[in-house]
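To close the chapter, one final illustration. This time we ask the reader to focus less on the individual chains and more on the assembly as a whole: which components sit near each other, and how the overall shape emerges from the parts.
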Amino acid sequence: MFPWKRELVNYPFYLIMHPFNGYWDLKYERSKKTNLILSFAILFLLALTNILQTQYSGFLVQVVNPDNMNSLMEIVYVVVPVLFWCVANWSLTTLMDGEGKFEEIFTSTCFALIPLVVINFPWIWLSNVISLQETSFFRFSGSVAVAWFLFLMFVGNMTVHQYSPMKTIATGILTIVAMGFMAFLCMLFFSLMQQIVAFVSIIYQEIVLRS
Amino acid sequence: MLKRIAHLRGCLLLAICCLLGLGAGGTLVHANDGASSYNYSYWGDTVAAPRAYEATSLYNGAKLGAGQLKNPADLFVTADQQLYVLDSGNNRILVLDRQFKLLRVIDSFQRDGKQESFLNPQGLFVTDRQELIVADTGNKRIVHLDQDGRLVKVIDSPKSELLAEGFKFEPVRVVADKAQRIYAMAAGVYDGFMEFSASGDFTSFIGANRVNFDPTDYLWKMLSTRQQRSQMVMFTPTEFTNLDINDEGFLYATNGQASDNVKKLNAQGSDILRREGYFPPEGDIRFTSLDGPTRLVDIDVADSEIFAILDATRGRIFTYNGDGHFMYVFGGIGNQLGEFNTPVAIERLGDDYLVLDQALGEITVFQSTEYGRTLNEAVRSYYKGEEEKAYELFQQTINMNANLEFAYSGIGKALLRQGEYGDAMRYFKQSMDQKGYSKAFLLYRKQVLREHFTAIMTGVAVLAVALVLLRRYLKHKGGKKNVPMEA
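The assembled structure is written out below.
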C-alpha cells in the first residue's frame, strides 16, 4: 500500500528492537541515501521534541523560565554534540583500525537517538495529565530512553567499526575525552579570533581618528 | 471571578497597548512606590511591590523626656503594649506606654540591703508577669527583677562541667519562656544558647550553629604541621546574633552568616523553621559583592508565626510568614525618616514596627499602609484556617500587588476547598506551587472522568472495535503483498 513505508518507518523501529541485525543492514545492505535522509529526519525530530518539551511539558515535571527559553539553542544542543561525537569518533577510529566511514558513524549515531524521540515525544502530552506522585513514571521512562540510547550507541559503534565490546567501550571513553579537547580548541579559536578582530578594529579606529 | 477576568482580558490588553504607547505614563504610576519596596519572584528576580509600611514618627531621648539616649541596645514590647528601652550607655531602662510617654526609669535595684546598678547592659526581656530580666553584660550577670523592681535572682558565674575553666560569662541577650527558664546568648560562646532553670542554675547549651569553613583553609590545615596549626584560626561554629521567643515557647534565632541565618529552635534545639517560600528566609538573595550579603542583627516574632528580621548591612526589615514566604521589606540606610544609621533592634507594637537606632539613639515607628494591613490580615486568617476570609483578603492584596506570587496559592487553597478544582489549578500554577497543583489536578481529573465516564467508555469501545475491524480488513486485502521484514 505504501511502498516507502517499509524503508522509512518500519526499518528504524526494526533497528531499535534488533540493533545487531539492524546495524549490520545499515552498514552493508541499505542505500546510503535513505540512511542519510532518515538520519537528518531523526535529528530534526529530536530537536523538535526538545523544543516542544520545554514549551508544552506538564507543570509538574518541568518548570522552565520563559525568559530563558530559546528554540535555536535547543537545536544547537542537539546538533553540536552529535557533530562533535562523530568527528571525534571518526578521528580516533581511523587511527585505531576502525572500519567505519564518517557517514556510517553519523548515521549509526543518529539512529541511536530514536528512543529519545519515540519515548519522550508522547510524554510531552502525557506529562500534562499526571499528578506529582505519578511523575516517577515520567522520570523512569526518561532513564529508560537514555539507557536504550546508550546501548544502541554501543552496538552501533561496535558493528560499524567491527570492534570487540571492550575496544568499543575504550574508544567510547576516548571519544568523550577527544570531544573535550575539541570543545577547548573551539573556545580557544573563537577567543583568539575575537581578539584579532578587536585588534584590527582598534587599529582602524586609531588611523581614522588620527588622519 | 476568573471568568470575568478572562472577559476583561481583551480590554486589558488594549489598555496595556495604550499604556505602552504612552511609555512614561506607565512607569509614573509606580514611581511613588519607590525602590525600597520589592519582592522576589519565583525566578529570583526583584519585582516591584507597593509599600507595606511607612515611617510615621521618630522618637529620641529628648522627645521622650529622658535626656539623650546613649548607645541604646535593645527594645522590648510587652503583651499589654508597654515599651521597654534599654539605654545601655546610661545604664538604665526606660519604660514607656503606648503613646511613648515616659512611665518610669529603672536604673538600680536593692541587693542584700545595698543599692546596685547596671553596667553596660545589652539585652532585656519582660515576662508575661511583668518581670524584668536584664543581661547586665558589664557586670557579667543576668539580673531578674519582679514587677515592682525587687530583686528575684542574680545569675552570675554559672558552674557546670560543660563550661571550660576560667569561662567568662558575658550575657548579651536574654529571653525567658512561660516556665521561667531563661535562655541567654553570651559573648564568645559557640555552643549555642545557655539555658538556665527557673532557679537560675545552668542546665545546658541549646541549638549550636554548624561549623562552616573554607575548603582551601582546610587543605592548608591538612598540609601544615601541628605547630603551624596551633597558630592558625580554629574552625568554630558561628555565634548567634540575636534571639526571640514566641507564645508557644519556640526560640527564633539569627546568626551572622550570609545564608541559613534564621533558625526556629524547639526544646531539643533542632531547627524547625519552615522554608517553603521560593527562597529560604535569609534577607536579600541578590546583592552586589561590594555591599556584601545580609547581616542579621535582630529578629522579632509576632502572632501567626509572622517574623521579621533586621539586616544591619542595608538597614532593611524583611518580614516572612510562618511558611517562610517573603511578605514585604522596608527601611534602609540613610538620613531620611524611615532610614537608619546603625539599626540594632526591632519590635512590634501591635501592628506597628519599632526600629531602634544605636548610634543616633532614636526609635522609628513604622505604620502599615492599606496594602500592608490587608496582607497582614490575609496571612493571619490563612494561618487561623479561615479560608473564606483569607480568600477575600488575598484577592484584595493581589489587586494591589499582582507580583505577590504566594498569595495566589492562598486563593488556590480556598478554591480547592470550595470544589473549584480547575480554577484552583490555575491559581496554583500562577504561584508555582507544584504540590497544591497536583492536589487540585487529581481532584479535577477524577471529577472530569466521573462526569464523562459514559462518553469516554463508549469512545474507547468503539475505537477498539474499529481497530479490530480495520486490522482484519487490511490483512484480508494486503496480506499477500506485505511480506514481514524479519522473515
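The longest helix of chain A spans residues 165-210. The helical segments of chain A are 3-17, 19-29, 32-56, 71-95, 102-112, 114-126, 135-161, 165-210. With these observations in hand, you are ready for the problems at the end of the chapter.
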